[in-house]
Specification:
This protein is an alpha/beta fold. It has 4 domains: about 70 residues, no CATH class; about 100 residues, Endonuclease, Chain A, CATH 3.40.960; about 90 residues, Orthogonal Bundle (Arc Repressor Mutant, subunit A); about 70 residues, Arc Repressor Mutant, subunit A (Orthogonal Bundle), CATH 1.10.10. It is built from 15 helices and 13 strands. α10 crosses α12 and α14 packs across α15. The longest helix is centred in the middle third of the chain and has 17 residues. The protein is globular, with a radius of gyration of 26 Å.
């Protein structure tokens, strides 16, 4: 990387940070470098091809740089063998905590796993051999360890390496530290399912025979980790429990970071045992049923409450009387202070702990419509995404929202719904838009 270049990284279990390359310590950084430092993520590592870390720190302090700036001896920390998007040898990192966790768990489950398979800067972090044919790899696993950070752009690295490897016949699975930290059981199940699907594929369609790369050490990521340790940041990412459920007492507690996809949306699923229609039921019974629906699914659109009322009552066709009964119950519950409302969306007043939910496997197709997603839920997910990324473009936030809520693609209706809530949070001073990126206010 040349002086003035900027690269973004995510160290597993640590923080998003930028590495900004400046000139020698006795020179004035360019406007581009200064701007990148000021706008950088929570931690900015400033490196120089020739200066010592101490002199870089003095330069930053003299220029009034933020306290989050940490110096790194860039010239010594990066070696010619570090992989790049332009190619080159692939030096395995010894900063492979997540890789080791996954590899050990798979080994305990009976799978044969190889590390660092591939060459020419294009390979997989872990490769799982076919249980029935040890000479064949069925799945390649990419993680966001130190090798992931070597690319100047994480998105480019993900896209290009994925395209090349899949073009060579690899079945790929991506294991990101955030997902494993937040919900290791779900991440483990997804990995096992990926292996099962890959194993079931035609054996003639698979990756080429590649030999594991020899071990190496002394990578730049180790020096960056040591720098974080000296600054008081956590030195190890969280280690998920073993597949058997036993926990290592030495494992730190998982940090509170958002997972990529929210928990499944739970739909009210019970039966009302009354011989009369909703509009003929006692008021207390009708209010109780509606309250149970809202407690389970809130925040929820009023029309969806009506649909769920018909379902639990065993009604196939929703008529005007059922609609009127649901409408009356919601109005009465609001007057009684039992529910709160935003537009046509309602939720319980009893302090429910809301979380963004995935609609991937819902029974009611209408829940997948953009106009049925509660604005409150969108804003909650937005806040978590922006806080977790510490600066993200609105378009990227919308893409992440799509995945959090369990949608396959970002259509125009979803895009408009998300854009409205982004603008609303900016106007409410809940988010700030600086230099094209969103930040928590």
């Amino acid at each position: 990387m040349a002086p003035g270049a900027v690269a973004e990284f995510l160290e597993p279990g640590l923080l998003n940070f930028d590495l900004v390359v400046v000139e020698a310590a006795d020179s004035t950084p360019s406007d581009h470098a200064l701007g990148a430092i000021v706008r950088g993520r929570q931690v900015v590592l400033v490196g120089s091809p020739s200066a010592e870390p101490g002199s870089i720190l003095e330069l930053c302090r003299a220029r009034g740089m933020p306290e989050r700036v940490l110096p790194v001896a860039y010239g010594r920390a990066l070696s010619p063998s570090v992989p790049s998007m332009e190619g080159g040898s692939r030096e395995p990192s010894h900063d492979r905590t997540l890789e080791e966790v996954i590899a050990k768990s798979l080994t305990r489950s009976g799978y044969d796993v190889d590390h660092e398979v591939g060459a020419e800067g294009l390979g997989v972090d872990l490769a799982v051999r076919d249980p029935d044919d040890p000479n064949r790899y069925v799945l390649g696993i990419l993680t966001d360890g130190a090798g992931y950070h070597a690319a100047a752009s994480a998105r480019e690295r993900d896209r290009l390496i994925g395209e090349v490897l899949e073009g060579r016949g690899w079945n790929l699975h991506r294991a990101w530290a955030l997902g494993w930290c937040r919900d290791p059981d779900a991440a483990w199940r997804r990995l096992l399912q990926a292996i099962e699907r890959a194993t079931a594929l035609d054996p003639s369609i698979g990756p080429p025979d590649l030999d594991p790369v020899e071990e190496a050490s002394g990578t730049w990521a180790a020096q960056i980790r040591a720098l974080f340790e000296s600054a008081g940041a956590p030195s190890e990412p969280w280690t998920p429990a073993s597949p058997t459920g036993s926990a290592d007492e030495s494992v730190p507690t998982a940090p509170d970071v958002p997972s990529l996809e929210g928990p499944p949306y739970l739909e009210a699923d019970f039966q009302v045992r009354l011989d009369c229609a909703p509009d003929q039921a006692p008021a207390t019974e009708l209010l109780s049923v509606v309250a149970r629906i809202v407690d389970t699914e809130g925040p929820i659109h009023a029309d969806e409450v009506t649909r769920r009322l018909a379902r639990v009552w065993g009604i196939d066709q929703i008529g005007s009387r059922t609609q009127e009964a649901a409408r009356w119950a919601l109005q009465q519950a609001e007057r009684d202070g039992e529910i709160q409302r935003e537009g046509r969306f309602v939720w319980s007043s009893r302090g429910v702990n809301f979380r963004p939910r995935s609609r991937r496997e819902v029974r009611s197709d209408t829940l997948r419509k953009a106009n049925m997603i509660p604005p409150l839920e969108i804003r909650l997910a937005l806040g978590q995404i922006v806080e977790g990324h510490v600066g993200v473009r609105p378009s990227e936030a919308s893409e992440l929202l799509t995945r959090v809520l369990g949608f396959e693609r970002l259509g125009e209706e979803l895009k408009d719904a998300f854009a409205r809530q982004i603008q609303k949070m900016i106007e409410a001073d809940e988010l700030h838009l600086r230099d094209g990126k969103l930040y928590v206010a």
